[in-house]
């Protein structure tokens, strides 16, 4: 830094107590310091640390996500397919490029909603198959099943889970003191991306595998009960694990392993359920009543 000439004498900002700055420069320095503090305060609050700004930010993020759903020609379905395959066989690879995406796009979240659309299409087809096999070809029941699986199971439950984890991670899993608050803030669209990634392995187990195993897992014997309950434990555990990987990939989060705590709850409930509570029969009964396994010719499930 070049020295500053004031009244014929040289002064440097780092000269220490040997030099006394003029009062005008002291006022200017004080004003600059106040402005800097004000700016830092503004950035801190703009990062979503207050409840009101967090709520408005999440609503804006939801609107942005819905707006992007209309950009069908710009979606990269090849990359979305790669994501869905690897989230099942190597989920860590899916989150390996999150940091580079932040550097290039200045956002942690995907700017392409192709993954939710592909999952919605898969759920749509699965709902039709479930209705054909279990709803006796009832058109209204088919529409209800499609609405339940696509809108309620995936989107509404996903929005609820994403919002809870988004708020909890920003409040409890970030450092209390940070220099760049905006860079250490979990984006709501990223939270929904994590839900979508975690939902697909669950979809394959509970919406596809259970479709094929329904004649087995709904029978009234302990071995079939064990198969069905283990299927649910596996699906929910994988959902929790992929969710944990998604938040653990963010470099500014701490204690992200707390997100694995639900696995202990799932396992405890699983052990208790082996005493005689058939999860598959209960869930399918709630969705379809006394379903009829047409393809397997198994008759009415009691």
From TrEMBL:
Lineage: Eukaryota, Fungi, Dikarya, Basidiomycota, Pucciniomycotina
UniProt region (Disordered), positions on chain: 1-38
Keywords: Membrane, Transmembrane, Transmembrane helix
Protein name per its UniProtKB record: UNC-50 family protein
Ranges annotated as spanning the membrane: 115-134, 146-168, 198-217, 224-247, 259-280
Bilayer topology: Multi-pass membrane protein
Polar residues composition-biased segments: 1-12
Pfam family, one: UNC-50
Stretches assigned to coiled coil: none
Compartment(s): Membrane
Chief location category: membrane
UniProt GO cellular component terms: Golgi membrane
Residue ranges, compositional bias (Low complexity): 20-38
InterPro entries hit by this protein: UNC-50
Membership in a protein family: Belongs to the unc-50 family.
């Amino acid at each position: 830094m070049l020295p500053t000439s004031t009244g014929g004498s040289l002064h440097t900002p780092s000269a220490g107590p040997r030099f006394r700055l003029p009062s005008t420069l002291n006022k200017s320095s004080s004003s600059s310091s106040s402005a800097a503090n004000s700016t830092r305060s503004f950035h801190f609050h703009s990062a979503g640390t207050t409840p009101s700004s967090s709520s408005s930010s999440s609503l804006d993020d939801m609107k942005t996500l819905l707006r992007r759903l209309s950009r069908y020609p710009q979606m990269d379905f090849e990359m979305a397919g790669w994501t869905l395959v690897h989230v099942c066989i190597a989920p860590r690879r899916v989150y390996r490029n999150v940091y580079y995406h932040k550097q290039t796009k200045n956002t942690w979240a995907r700017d392409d909603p192709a993954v939710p659309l592909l999952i919605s299409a898969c759920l749509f087809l699965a709902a039709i198959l479930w209705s054909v096999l279990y709803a006796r070809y009832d058109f209204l029941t088919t529409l209800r099943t499609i609405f339940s699986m696509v809108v309620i199971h995936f989107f509404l439950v996903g929005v609820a889970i994403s919002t809870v984890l988004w708020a909890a991670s920003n409040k409890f899993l970030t450092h209390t003191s940070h220099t760049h608050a905006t860079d250490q803030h979990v984006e709501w669209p990223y939270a929904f991306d994590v839900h979508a990634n975690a939902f697909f392995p669950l979809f394959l187990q509970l919406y596809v595998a259970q479709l094929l195993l329904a004649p087995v897992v709904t029978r009234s014997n302990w071995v079939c009960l064990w198969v069905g309950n283990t299927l649910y434990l596996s699906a929910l555990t994988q959902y929790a694990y992929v969710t944990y990987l998604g938040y653990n990939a963010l470099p500014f989060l701490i204690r992200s392993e707390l997100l694995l705590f639900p696995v202990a709850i799932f396992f405890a409930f699983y052990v208790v359920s082996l005493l005689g509570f058939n999860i598959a029969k209960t869930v399918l009964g709630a969705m379809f009543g006394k379903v009829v396994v047409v393809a397997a010719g198994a008759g009415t499930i009691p």
